[in-house]
Amino acid sequence: MNNEMLRERLEAYARKKYGVEPEQLPFKHEDYAVLRHSDNGKWFAVFIVKSRSQLGLDGDGDAQIVSLKIDDPPLADSLVQQPGYLRGYPSVAWNWVSIVLDGTVPFEEICQWLDDSYDATSSKLRNQKVVLEKRRTSG
């Protein structure tokens, strides 16, 4: 599966599951896009196209990646030891991991990380349980 097809499948997955559309970023390269929460505006996925050499990959030409938030630094450290995973681009300080969209990492696995990233960046207030006061009875 080529990387354009994989990106399109991921965008379709996010569209169906979360009701979001990819948003083009105002950078020089037109193939950058983000998926963001509709309620809080936070990014949960970033699609980036860079030259393979800029990403530290072998070969010529461009590579397409998706960067996702991983809220567990030890897990992120173990992931980047596996083929198809890179330290988060553009900044390792963001607790994000990048996945090369070349078929090395299975689509279903990327979807699981996309779901985790969505959860990690969701509005914390929306996920909190509301404690209701007990009604007082007159008596």
From TrEMBL:
Q: Which InterPro entries match?
A: YjbR, YjbR-like_sf, YjbR/MT2646/Rv2570-like
Record-linked Pfam families: YjbR (PF04237)
Its domain of life reads Bacteria
Q: What is this protein called?
A: YjbR
Q: Which organism is it from?
A: Propionibacterium ruminifibrarum
